[in-house]
Design a protein that fits this description.
OB fold (Dihydrolipoamide Acetyltransferase, E2P), 3 helices, Dna Ligase, domain 1
Length: about 220
């Protein structure tokens, strides 16, 4: 779920940071620049892990700041495809189930990746798995907001962020998440934890496996 990304950048250290060591200044500025930001095709940056190389520092005419090329490793949130993760349901819509990990909210379980058959309940604004029982009846299992859910990551998408102008200027609003995960729960063992952790969970799993084998 978390990886170390090797990166490099030129860090501008202003004179008000000269009282710190160069390493401390670079650490502060890198975290200020990258923490909780999405880097295209890299992932969501969490925190600096270490600095692997500090190059020479240069001061250019007319600029009292120092400019230093730095190579470093950053802790990045970027799950591998097919990885299984536990999160919480943030909300439901006709698009599917929206999941949060607390620090990352842009996870969608689309309709075609829910347990089958499922329906959307307009009153409760929740998806419902119509779990088939042995007697032919269906037992409604609601996917309510706040419930822990186990899902499998199936794909990811990155979108380039639009530049923002100074305060007071009219700039287009970024409406698309820069980094988004698509997930699925349409297999045994995935979905709400309460579905599988109940006293009769093992029997439920066996019933589902038998139904799939019969199909």
């Amino acid at each position: 779920m978390f990886v170390l990304a090797e990166m490099k950048d030129v860090i501008r250290v202003t004179p008000d940071n000269f009282h710190q060591s160069l390493t401390d200044s670079i650490t502060t500025l890198l975290n200020r620049k990258l923490a909780n930001k999405v880097v295209l095709n890299v992932g969501l940056c969490i925190a600096l892990f270490d600095i692997t190389e500090i190059g020479h520092s240069y001061i250019f005419p007319g600029d009292g700041s120092s400019h230093t090329e730095v190579k470093f490793r950053y802790i990045v949130f970027r799950p591998i495809i097919e990885e299984i993760i536990i999160g919480k349901i943030r909300s439901c819509s006709r698009e599917g189930v929206h999941v949060t990990l607390g620090f990352f909210d842009d996870i969608l379980i689309p309709v075609n990746a829910l347990q089958h058959p499922s329906r959307f309940d307009e009153t409760d604004q929740a998806w419902v798995w119509e779990y088939p029982k042995e007697d032919g009846e269906k037992h409604d299992l609601f996917m309510d907001s706040g419930e822990p859910i186990r899902f499998r990551v199936t794909s990811e998408t990155f979108e380039e962020s639009l530049p923002t102008g100074p305060p007071g200027t009219e700039c287009p609003v970024q409406t698309v998440a820069p980094y988004r995960l698509i997930a699925g729960i349409n297999e045994p063992g995935l979905g709400l934890l309460t579905w599988w952790e109940a006293p009769d969970a093992e029997e439920d799993v066996e019933d589902i496996d038998e139904q799939e084998n019969d199909e």
